[in-house]
Every structure is written in C-alpha cells, then in structure tokens.
Amino acid sequence: MALKKGADIKPAAGKLGILMPGMGAVATTFIAGVLAVRRGLAKPIGSLTQMGTIRLGKRTENNTPMIKDYVSLASLDDIVFGGWDIFPDDAYAAATRAGVLESKLLDQLKDELQAIKPMTAVFEQAYVKKLTGPNVKKGTSKMDLAEQLMEDIRQFKAKNGCDRLVAVWCGSTEVYRKPSEVHSTLAKFEEGLRNSSDDIAPSQIYAYACIKLGIPYSNGAPNLASDTAALIELARDKQVPLAGKDFKTGQTLMKTILAPGFKARLLGLQGWYSTNILGNRDGEVLDDPESFKSKEVTKLGVLDHIFQPHLYPDLYGHIDHVVRINYYPPRGDNKEGWDNIDIVGWLGYPMQIKVNFLCRDSILAAPIVLDLALFMDFASRAGMSGIQEWLSFYWKSPMTPEGLYPEHDLFIQLMKLKNTLRYAKGDDLITHLGAEYYD
After folding, report:
1. CA-to-CA distance for 56 and 79, rounded, in angstroms?
2. Positions of CATH 3.30.360.10 in the chain
3. Which CATH superfamily is 15-247+362-425 part of?
4. Structural element, H or E, at residue 230
5. Helices 410-425 & 251-264 angle (0-180, nearest 10)
6. In angstroms, what CA-CA distances link 315 with 271, 321, 431?
7. Which of 10, 121, 208, 381 has the fewest CB atoms within 10 Å, measured from its CB?
8. pLDDT at position 435, please?
9. How is 167-217 classified by DSSP, letter by letter?
10. Beta strands 268-278 and 241-244, pairing class
11. Confidence of residue 438 (pLDDT cuts 50, 70, 90)
12. DSSP-assigned states of every residue in 127-153
C-alpha cells in the first residue's frame, strides 16, 4: 500500500514485542544494548532512531528535531524481547558465549538477560551445515512447523501483553538458493509447506508465519527468505511491511560510503579486492562454500549498481571485484576487513587506496536491528505495506519493487529515508536546491 502524504499514523502506544529468529551474537548484543541504554549505562551510538536528527523547512529556520521526537516511534521502555534459537541458552549465557560485550556490563544486566529464553527453533541441517543444536522443533510437515511458530507468537504476545509485534531475522546465513517453482505463488508455497518441499528453507517458514499473522518482517541475512513472489503476495494480502536483506555493517558499509565519492568525482576504477577474517558463529557458518555463496552475491552487487558501468563504460566498464571471507577463530566477533582499491585519475594514471577496517560485527549490527524494528513498526502504523524501499539504508542487498534496481549509495539512501518521514508527516521534502531557488 502506497504511503499518503500527511498519513494518519496510529500512535506508538503500548508494548512492542521484537521477535528474533536466531538469538546469538547480534541479537544478544542488541538486547543487552537496549537494556543498558534504558538504565543509563551507555549511549545508543549508531542508531538513527535514537541519536539522529531531521531538518524541516529552510536552513534559516533552524528547525532540526530528533527523529524520535518528530515521528511516533516506540519508546525503548516499551520494548519486549523474544525469539528462537537452536541452542537453549538464555540471553545472558548466549551473550557471554558470544564474547562481544564485556562481563562488567553483562553482569549489571544479568537478571533481565537470564529471563529471556529462546523458544525452540525451526532448523534444517541441509541449510546451515556447520551448526547443530538441541533446541529444535519436530513436526509432521513444514506447514506444521509454521503453525507451531504461529502458536509461539500468539503465546508470546499474550504472556508479555504486547500491543504490536515486529520480527527481525538475526540467524545464520543459509546456503545459497535461487527461487524455484514453489516460490512463484502463495498457493504453491503453501502446498510446498504441506508437502515439506526441500526448496523451502527454515528462514522462509519463519517469514511465512510472521507475515501470515500480520507481523512486519525484516531479513538480516543474505539467504532467500521473504524476497520471493509467494511471500510478497502474502504480504500484500495481509498488508504487511517487508524489508531486507543482509545487514549492511562492515566492509559493504565502507563500499557504499567510498564508491559514491569516487563516482561523484568521476575517478575510474580498475579493481576492488576485499578479504575478511572473522571467528564468530557467522564466520564458522560462512566457512561452508554454499553459505558463503549467499553472502558473496549480496556483497558483489553493490559496486555495479553504484557505478552504473552501462552509463560510464570508460570509467567502470571492466572492474575486477573480488570478495573473500576466511574463518579465523582467534578473531572472534572482531572482524577485520582489508580492501585494496585500484583507481584511475586524470589521463589514465593509476592510484591505490588501502582500507583496513578492524570492526566489531555485532556492535555495528545491533543498532540496525533496533532501527529496523522501530521503523517497520512505524511503517505498519502509517499504513505502509509491501517492500519498504525507503529502508535500503540498512541493507547490503535492498529489496525493491519489481522492475526497479536497488539504490546502494548510502547518502541517497539516507535522503530517501528522511524524505519518507517528512512525506508521512505532511512536511516539505528537502531538495538541497540553492538559496536562490529554495533554501
């Protein structure tokens, strides 16, 4: 459903439940972070919904409110956490095992974290070959598993007194799969669930269950999930917002910052070599070639869409773009990304740029989970449904309506996001024309 200017946005009243399939490093870092911010123990750095501002009107008016004050977003105090995982560890034990956050912080949040326990998960070894765990559902069919998830959701909502729910996939990367016939229509997908089709992945079962219950759904991994014709059809029928896919955190974030600058100055590009080492559960999963293929596809598509080689063949028509990910257990969650960029300047003279990003993967992902949960809840209350392209800012591989290419330029993405908020509130869009036209 299209957004109307000055939409009638329902207030963010009552509790918002955030459901997460996968309660490992990313999810527990997010949960602990929100609890810490609630207590005044830390700042929500990296979160647009909590720390971002938005300009309204002319620059001379100096009207720049906080985004969270401008639009109706759920308060952090009103958030309730839930989810599923193949391991039965509570959020405190899972966060301790993940090793992202220091025990000094986790111990202050211990009681609250220990109270958050994962529900039994839908899991299929064929889709995540490097992991196995005991906290797994059994069912007579994949439709039975979907119905079990829906019952989990109903019970969670009732037990926690939630007024609204959103879901954000924080689980592992599944093996690479292309859409098949079972994904082509909702009727075929539901028949595939009843027949336990091998082509239906666990992430798709979660997406189906959530969308079926009218819950906004975001896919934080690169695997095929809600981005199929069948589930887009279901989202349209249920008027549910969808967004994805694959959180834009480390190396790809840097690409969507640097590449627009090269293109703006019309500097040529010969090649971009990227390699990563990481040792967390994500690294272990991506050590499987089929899971890595899912990640590689989302990471490789960024540069083509930013540089538009069909429009600039002399500058970007022959780029060697290579991406590698290596599992290295000693590094844990502290991923290191190296980039070697071969650019070309005036008269064809070559230059090089080297980037070494020692990032903390879950620290970068956690505020994305928060922002997506709050913005997707906002979208639902504003009557927006289907693919939420305005949230491309957060994704390596943004979903787009059929026939449209994704926008990867981070700065255009941010402008699109903020203008969508202005439009929803009935305010003028910011065009950045000069003062002689419109200030």
Report:
1. 28
2. 251-358
3. NAD(P)-binding Rossmann-like Domain (3.40.50.720)
4. helix 229-238
5. 90
6. 11, 14, 28
7. 10
8. 58
9. EEE-SPPPPP----GGGSSHHHHHHHHHTT-TT--HHHHHHHHHHHTT--E
10. unpaired
11. very low
12. TSTT---S-B---SSHHHHHHHHHHHH
3-state secondary structure of 249: coil
| Tokens, residue 317 | 């028509």
- Supply angle C-alpha 40, 41, 45, rounded to 5: 90
**Is the bond preceding residue 245 a cis peptide, omega within 30 degrees?**
yes
pTM comes to 0.93
CA atoms within 13 Å, Cβ hemisphere of 277: 8
CB hemisphere CA count around 413 (13 angstroms): 26
Cα(72)–Cα(242) distance, rounded to whole angstroms? 19
In 257-344 the beta strands, taken as DSSP E runs, fall at 268-278, 320-327, 336-344
Range(s) of the chain covered by CATH 3.40.50.720 = 15-247+362-425
Lowest mean pLDDT among 248-262, 289-303, 307-321: 289-303
Give the C-alpha separation, 286 to 429, whole Å: 42
Q: Which helix (H) or strand (E) holds 162?
A: strand 162-169
| Whole-number Å distance between alpha carbons of 64 and 53 | 6
Report whether pLDDT(429) > 90.
Answer: yes
What is the C-alpha to C-alpha distance for residues 200 and 192, in angstroms, rounded to an integer?
7
271 neighbors 342 (Cβ within 8 angstroms):
yes
List Cβ neighbours of 53 (8 Å cut-off, separation of 6 or more). Answer: 64, 65, 66, 67
Q: What are the tokens at 396?
A: 């390596």
Q: Which fold has domain 251-358?
A: Dihydrodipicolinate Reductase; domain 2 (3.30.360)
Contact assessment for residue 263 and residue 239, using Cβ atoms and an 8 Å cutoff: no
pLDDT tens per residue, range 264-276: 999 999 999 999 8
CA distance 200 to 353: 42
Contact 171, 123 (CB under 8 A): no
Of 237, 240, 253, 353, the residue nearest 299 (C-alpha):
253
Give the relative orientation of helices 361-381 and 25-38 as an angle to the nearest 10 degrees: 70
Q: What is residue 5's DSSP assignment?
A: T
Q: What is the mean pLDDT of the chain?
A: 93
Looking at residue 435, what DSSP letter applies? T
Contact criterion met (CB below 8 Å) for 17 and 213: no
For residue 31, the cross-strand partners are: none
